Amino acid sequence: MKVLYVIAHPDQRSLNHSLMNVGIKRLEENGHEVRVSDLYQMEWKSNVDEDDFLNHEKGSRLNIPDSSGRAFKEGKLTPDVIAEQEKLKWADAVIFQFPLWWFSVPAILKGWFDRVFASGYAYNVGEYNETRHGTRYGEGIMEGKRAFCVISAGGKQECFSERGVNGYIDDLIFPINHGMLFYPGFTVLPPVLVFRGDSKRPEVFQNASKAILERMDTIETIKPITYRKQNFGDYKMPDVTLKDGLEKPGQTHFDIHISE
């Protein structure tokens, strides 16, 4: 496989970079080809502004979806954005690795999604009618490509349990897995989660390395998260709401969007 590794951590000596190196080594040992987008090393520009759209008239009204869509259609996105889109086109699988900061991705990675997933490229693609609502949630530019996150958190696993004070980890990362990855069509694999990432205990790195190695060995075969596709009968149109009775007993909130 061709694997793109997108990492967002400012320190090359970090747990995240060390684990990435473990993962890349195993991927290459297994015959996969790997490219890396190290966002801090690249000094990635995270904020969206009029400079992102080379055909935008400076000082005029900036509507991000409209300006983004026109720039994508006319080939007027900036070279750094186009380069990342080309990497995504090349890749069969994409790994996003980052620390969980303030219950979300680091700003630099959010900016990668904001800028690279341009209108017309990753969203607002496809027809809208009584049975379809665009090409998204299981369809889209990333359809057929696998993706997953490697996420480190400073707290204990118990703090991220269903009764943990931080909230259930699956709920916290639903907007990332479902909203950023499944939305443009990725087949989303379960995340690799690393808890107590700030503890500096040797066993944290040892256990996390074991999990990373296992994932890299099964990247082609592990069962994905079975999110419900939007346009394949599970949702009522045009409201795009889940049809009554499809959820299983006990399924609530985000879980109802997983079919099994």
Automatic annotation (TrEMBL):
Residues 1-214 form the Flavodoxin-like fold domain. This is Flavodoxin-like fold domain-containing protein. One of its GO terms (molecular function) is NAD(P)H dehydrogenase (quinone) activity. The keyword Oxidoreductase applies. GO terms for cellular component: cytosol. It comes from the Eukaryota. It holds the Pfam family Flavodoxin_2. Keywords: Oxidoreductase. Gene3D superfamilies: 3.40.50.360. InterPro entries: Flavodoxin_fold (IPR003680), Flavoprotein-like_sf (IPR029039), NAD(P)H_dehydrogenase_qn (IPR051545). The keyword Disulfide bond does not apply. Belongs to the NAD(P)H dehydrogenase (quinone) family.
